Structures are given as structure tokens and as C-alpha cells.
């Protein structure tokens, strides 16, 4: 006979007052944990296997090197040249930037149209208020003064010269141009400048690559598998919203998206798959799937 009285259990002549030895407590805990693991495995026994991993799309120009697209001929100037000489040389050569070399051919910096325009626009030393003086170091204040009043190239040029090797990929160069917020990068070989890589050089390279897109060939099944794998990893759309069908490299994408951004992102997703030649859009843009808070309606 089993009787529960408060925290006591009476079974015949045996009375348990709710206190459990540590050994028994650990054994019970371990059993519960093991049971939870076994249950979880049983629940997931029929779950679908993840789609095969597909490599992330590579950026355009990843196989091209800086030396293939750089401008080998460039114009240079010495640090003691005047601002007027720099401006005249830029205008005569049709370039927007001059590499500054010392007498031994070592690159010291670069002077650009932006440096000259900034100097002309300032026309005077930047404000030296008490607030600016307190929170700006002396080096920065002195540099700003030189750029505002300087008459020689060495005083106005940008000294933070970022250079790249000639084997740097175009994609890496583009990233550096973007993150460093510069328009040109000297290309060096054995510490000597052999060319200039500018934003316009990268744009021209991308233009050449554009004529080659869609020339890859891949089986339709491979394309379909890659599309599904990328869609499953996207994170910005539910895979249940969209379906792909592939025929001779032509991809038809159908389903429901909740914004124009999702539709364009799906195009970009498909365009990055090797073997895709055309995209047929059968998507419907609707906000019906969204709840009042902007999330998916349940």
C-alpha cells in the first residue's frame, strides 16, 4: 500500500521523509538527462537531412590580379614642388593624382585633386577653438594647418600611402579601395612602384567580366541543388516561400515574397550560381505573410 502524506511516503512499514542521499540524487539526475537525450534522438529520427553544402558565391574578379588591370604609366612629382606645379602637372597629364617620390625613388605619399581643392576651400587654418584644442592632439592640429596654408607638395600631400602587391586579387583591391576610402593604390614590386590601381581600373575590369558571365556550363540538377542549398542558408527568407525549377540553365523562380528587396535578393542568389543563363521571375510580392509587428504571421 502506497500512501503520500505531505513529503512523506509510507509503503507498508517503510516511511520515507523526502530526504534523498546524495548518491541516489546523482543517479536520478543522470537517468533523467540520459532519458532526455534518448527522447531528443527519437524525435529527430525522421528529420530531413540538411541540403548538401554549396560553396559561397565568389566575388567578381576574384581570379584577376592587380598587375593585370593596373595603369603602368603614372605621373610623379617631388616633395619640394609647389602646389602650382602640382596643379599644372595634373591638368596637363589628365590625371587626378600624383605619386610623390624622394630623390632616391622612395614613395612618400600622394597628392590628389581632393588635396588641392580642400586647401583652396579652406583658405585659412581650421578653427582652433578651446574645445578643438582640448580634444585634438597637436599632431593633427599641425597637419590641418599645413594642409590649409602649405605651398609645397610635402605639406599638402596625403602621407598615409597605402600600397598593394601586384598579385593582389581585384576583389581584395576593391575592398581596400572601399574600406580605406581612397581612389587609387600604388602597386609595388620589390618596394618600387610599378603602377597605379584606381577605382576606374576596377570598374573597367568588372565591365570586361560582365561580358563573360553566364558562359559557365553546369548540369540542371547541380544548379537546382546549389540553389536550394543557398536558399536554405540565406536567413532572410523562408525556403517554404520559394521554389526553383531549372531547364538547360534557365531558372524559373516562383512563390511569394514579402518585399521588393527579397525579390531582388533572390535574383542575386540565382545569378551567382555557375551555369545559370537566364532567370524567369514568377514571384508575387505581398505583405500578407507579415503580422502587425512586421514579423511573419503565425
CATH architecture of the largest domain: Roll
Q: What is the tally of beta strands?
A: 12
Strand content: 15-25%
What is the CATH homologous superfamily assignment of the largest domain?
CBS-domain
What's the rounded overall pLDDT mean? 76
The CATH C-level class name of the largest domain: Alpha Beta
CATH topology of the largest domain: CBS-domain
- Name the quaternary structure: single chain
Query: What is the rounded distance between the termini?
Result: 50 Å
The major pleated sheet works out as: 3 strands, antiparallel
Q: Give the % helix.
A: 25-40%
Shape: elongated
Q: What is the radius of gyration computed over CA atoms, rounded to a whole number of angstroms?
A: 33 Å
Discrete helix count: 11
The strand line-up of the biggest sheet is: 1-2-3
Give the domain tally. Answer: 3
Could you say which structural class the secondary elements and strand pairing correspond to?
A: alpha/beta
Order of helices and strands: EEEHHEHEEHHHHEHEEHHEEHE
Poorly predicted regions are 1-11, 44-62
Amino acid at each position: 500500500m502506497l500512501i503520500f502524506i505531505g513529503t512523506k511516503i509510507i509503503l507498508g512499514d517503510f516511511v520515507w521523509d523526502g530526504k534523498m542521499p546524495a548518491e541516489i540524487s546523482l543517479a536520478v539526475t543522470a537517468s533523467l538527462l540520459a532519458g532526455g537525450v534518448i527522447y531528443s534522438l527519437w524525435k529527430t529520427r525522421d528529420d530531413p537531412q540538411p541540403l548538401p553544402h554549396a560553396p559561397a558565391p565568389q566575388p567578381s574578379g576574384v581570379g584577376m590580379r592587380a598587375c593585370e588591370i593596373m595603369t603602368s604609366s603614372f605621373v610623379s612629382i617631388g616633395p619640394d614642388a609647389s602646389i602650382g606645379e602640382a596643379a599644372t602637372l595634373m591638368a596637363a597629364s589628365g590625371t587626378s593624382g600624383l605619386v610623390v617620390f624622394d630623390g632616391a625613388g622612395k614613395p612618400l605619399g600622394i597628392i590628389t585633386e581632393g588635396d588641392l581643392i580642400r586647401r583652396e576651400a579652406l583658405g585659412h587654418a581650421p578653427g582652433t577653438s578651446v574645445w578643438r584644442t582640448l580634444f585634438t592632439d597637436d599632431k593633427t592640429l599641425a597637419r590641418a594647418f599645413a594642409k590649409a596654408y602649405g605651398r609645397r607638395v610635402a605639406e599638402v600631400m596625403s602621407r598615409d600611402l597605402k600600397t598593394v602587391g601586384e598579385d593582389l586579387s581585384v576583389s581584395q583591391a576593391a575592398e581596400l579601395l572601399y574600406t580605406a576610402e581612397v581612389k587609387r593604390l600604388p602597386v609595388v614590386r620589390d618596394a618600387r612602384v610599378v603602377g597605379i590601381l584606381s577605382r576606374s581600373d576596377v570598374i573597367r575590369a568588372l565591365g570586361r567580366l560582365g561580358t563573360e558571365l553566364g558562359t559557365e556550363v553546369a548540369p540542371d540538377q547541380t544548379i537546382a541543388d546549389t540553389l536550394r542549398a543557398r536558399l536554405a542558408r540565406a536567413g532572410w527568407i523562408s525556403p517554404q516561400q520559394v521554389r526553383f525549377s531549372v531547364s538547360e540553365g534557365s531558372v524559373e523562380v516562383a512563390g511569394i515574397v514579402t518585399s521588393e528587396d527579397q525579390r531582388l535578393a533572390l535574383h542575386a542568389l540565382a545569378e551567382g550560381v555557375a551555369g545559370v543563363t537566364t532567370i524567369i521571375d514568377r514571384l508575387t510580392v505581398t505583405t500578407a505573410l507579415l503580422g502587425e509587428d512586421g514579423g511573419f504571421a503565425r
